[in-house]
Amino acid sequence: MELDKIIQHDVTKPFPLPDQSIDVVITSPPYWGLRDYGIKSIFGGDPNCKHSFSEYNAKLVHENRQNLDGGTIGNDEFREKLHGFGTAKAGFCSKCGAWQGQLGLEPNPQMFIDHLVTICQEIKRVLKKSGSFYLNLGDTYCGSGRGYGSSPDPKWEKARCDNNKSKPSWRYDGGWRQPKQLMLMPSRVAIA
């Protein structure tokens, strides 16, 4: 392998690199629920499946993380017209359970953490024992969660709800996710 080469790669796909071949990995994944970059990937499931995804709208945890004027006024339709963004599409495969969506826009924080852990395992494989890994991961405030509309897909509803409860986990019921609190995502990823 040549020296001093910068490699950019989609981390949702296997790295085309040999084991223990990289000195440094520096990455800043999307923070959970804050931005829509318009890039979809497929996580989990059967790689040989001819997927059949049921797509549903997944709004950001906070609608104005683009720091645009007027983000907190008006209704969703007004904000979407004003800023040119609305909801991201995501969904589960009805055949194998794979999730298609964007890293950071998973329906719940645990799924986001699981995806980051999978990515970090691949990074560990290619990183030399003497290598360095830098993960820039900021926190997210828990929103009301009301941005995720209802869906007829039971996989989507189950993913949104903690412990198979019948109501979405964002509703205050003494659980760990409450509106206006930090999610502690960097710590949760570190101990995962």
TrEMBL record:
Q: Which GO terms describe its molecular function?
A: DNA binding; N-methyltransferase activity; site-specific DNA-methyltransferase (cytosine-N4-specific) activity
Keyword Methyltransferase listed = yes
Cite the entry's keywords alphabetically: DNA-binding, Methyltransferase, Restriction system, S-adenosyl-L-methionine, Transferase
Question: Domain DNA methylase N-4/N-6: where?
Answer: 22-144
Task: Describe the reaction catalysed, as an equation.
Answer: a 2'-deoxycytidine in DNA + S-adenosyl-L-methionine = an N(4)-methyl-2'-deoxycytidine in DNA + S-adenosyl-L-homocysteine + H(+)
Q: Biological process GO terms, please?
A: DNA restriction-modification system; methylation
- Asked if the record carries the keyword rRNA processing, the reply is no
Q: What is its EC number?
A: 2.1.1.113
Q: Name one Pfam family in it.
A: N6_N4_Mtase
InterPro entries in the cross-refs: DNA_methylase_N4/N6, MeTrfase_CN4_CS, SAM-dependent_MTases_sf
Family per UniProt?
Belongs to the N(4)/N(6)-methyltransferase family. N(4) subfamily.
Protein name, entry field: site-specific DNA-methyltransferase (cytosine-N(4)-specific)
